[in-house]
Amino acid sequence: MSAPLPQPDPTIATGPTSDQQVAQPRAVRTLPFWANPRFGLLIVIAVLVVVFSSLRSSFLNVDLTIVPMQADLSVFLVVGLAQLAVLSLGHMNLAVPRMAAISAFVMGWCYQHLSVPLWPGLLIGLAVGATVGAAAGWIITTTRVNSFVVTLALDFALVGLVSLLYSGVGDGVAFNVHPAGMDSLRTDTFSDYCMGNLCGPPVPLIVPIAVLAAIVVGLLFRVSRVGREILMTGSNLRAAELSGIPTSRRIIQAHALSGLLSALAGFLLAINSGAFSADIGSSFMLPSFLGPVLGGTLLSGGAVSVLGTVLGAALTEVIRTGLNLLQFSVQQLNIYIGVVLVVALSLDRVRQVVAERRGSRS
Amino acid sequence: MRICKSSTRSMALVAIALSVTLAAAGCAKKSDAGTGAAQSNTLSPAKVKIAFVPGGAHPYFQPWKNAAQQAKTDFGLGGVTYNETAGWDQTKQNNLLQSLAAQGYNAFGVFGVSPDNINSTFSDLAAKHLLVASLGSCPAGTTDAASFCLATDVETAAYQAAKTAIQQMGGSGNLVHLTGNKTDSNTQRRIAGVQKAVAETNGKVKLLQTVTDIDTDLQTAQKAVTDLLAAKGTQIKAIVNTAYNPAVASASAVKQSHLPIKVIAIDDDPTIIAGIKDGSVAATVVQNPVGQAYVGAYGLMKLAGGCTMTTPGVDIDSGSFVVTKTNVATYDTQREAKTTQLKADFDSKYLSCK
Q1: Of A21, A63, A64, A70, which to mutate for an interface test with B (greatest number of B Cβ within 10 Å)?
Q2: Which member of B24, B84, B185 has the closest CB to residue A172?
Q3: Contact residues on chain A for B141, CB-CB shorter than 8 A
Q4: Cα(B319)–Cα(B292) distance, rounded to whole angstroms?
Q5: Is residue A52 part of a domain?
Q6: Which value does ipTM take for this structure?
Q7: Which pTM value belongs to this model?
Q8: Chain segment B169-178, per-residue pLDDT in tens
Q9: Is residue A318 a contact partner of residue A45, using CB atoms and an 8 Å limit?
Q10: CATH for the stretch B154-286
């Protein structure tokens, strides 16, 4: 699910892929389906799954591999969506980790000290994340300072704030409270719930939350006016302003969405790990970019791919799990993750170039 | 948000998916019998495969490798592995543990990345009938979901280190504490240990500064120590270190600066031991990583064989020893004796075997 803006040059070689919405002249030649970057990612994932499962049959172990992989993928999908929300503008949000951390602190504090139930607590955390994100967007639009600088500074400020809050207002470095429903959400899969003899699939309960987030973000950019205006703003700020789009408002809204999704990612990680702690989000930076960028979201803005983000996050998760099962050493693991990612991206690029050449000959 | 008409079908699909999800959530839940139960079948040592999983790559854990192999030989274990790829990330460590379980490892010696979350990881492993010991670090709080924790009592070790520093300072002056990640509850315990020793001086010793988050790597620690000495070097009478990288950095920085600062280090890195011998390091507090891995493997093997813990989740101090110039040649004998004693204690105190 993706939605780039109309291309200024209708003869551009890299035409639209099947899951992109492009409002441009019909004369543009459409590339074959296999030239779609998402299709390439899917093939790479499928090949890796076959390779890893043939080398280690335990790769297909449902309880020890498939279920944990889905739970982690849910977190990193939402982390990727948080970054995607601002990549749509051509911006970056380097404060995704700490927006997750500050929201997780507020949620944990509410659960621990106010005995707030699980879902209302999540809503409070989402509100905090959205507010911090909106503040970042407001600073960017007001000062016209690059989003990289603003969010980097915000991240530094929040690192200190989170640490102070946990040591001052909190109880050390974590809230270990488990509100009703949290343990089920963490440990259960749908296969634990049955209607007669019919039980659900081995899918963790947190997966639908991430899927719902992906669908909502996808719909926002695909069909809503706000989403398309955000993309237009990311594609060409000046053109968007001249078209009557309230660009400042759209920038603030995109950053608020990024903050909200960061908060959701923090919540999901806290559920997975079992505590709302100060280190929530500390590992989010790289995955926040990996998923969207591997999936075809442009760093320059104007085009996003939610489906690509799902596949990009899935690719990194498959690689890490597979290499874990092959018991690589820490040095080998880092080398091979890098090599596999470069090979995957290179093959994807080769496939795209071949498709373009074939398209230009026909 | 204004939605185009063409989205109606998509929205309907979302609504259906949600309804199915909610309906599924409303179904009856299967019985939880067995969750959290200990391993029911007894295993001979040859069928016990133990994975040693530190929080990440760190010199402290390197002795675990040889100790694990020694345990395999001495106890006739089916297999041991050492995997440090968790990268100081609790999520990665959880994945790693699941991967190792999928490969047939049925007992785990784990240094949890996050002491605040690690009980959830231990509970997950126990629910899958896998044995787990917390090695090198105990979970935060008063409960331990592992069968046992065999680790340095970090607060006591920090207290010992600070007391040694105060003694070396002559009982008065300014002390600085260099340590690790502030958001780690073990660091909070170390800070508490140092503060306790300082409080006992009734104001004669002042804790000038506690510098946290400098154990990520040696370069970070070196920069922090250089900055500290440039700003306050002349005011400081002693530096107490409760993390590895700051210890190595402060030992060499103080030596180079020729300042009359007493350095109390931690662990027995060759740089530290050389510093003790040449007098640039006043003392170091060494821990017992070999004992943690070796005796931890012994305890796990006995539990797999049908023994039970007399007190499940008990915290056992693996020992910490103050090393100065006087005992630098003999401290390892003391440490080996502690390991032998710990193994005997497992048989006599901690385990109940029929």
Answers
A1: A64
A2: B185
A3: 176
A4: 9
A5: no
A6: 0.73
A7: 0.80
A8: 999 999 999 9
A9: yes
A10: 3.40.50.2300
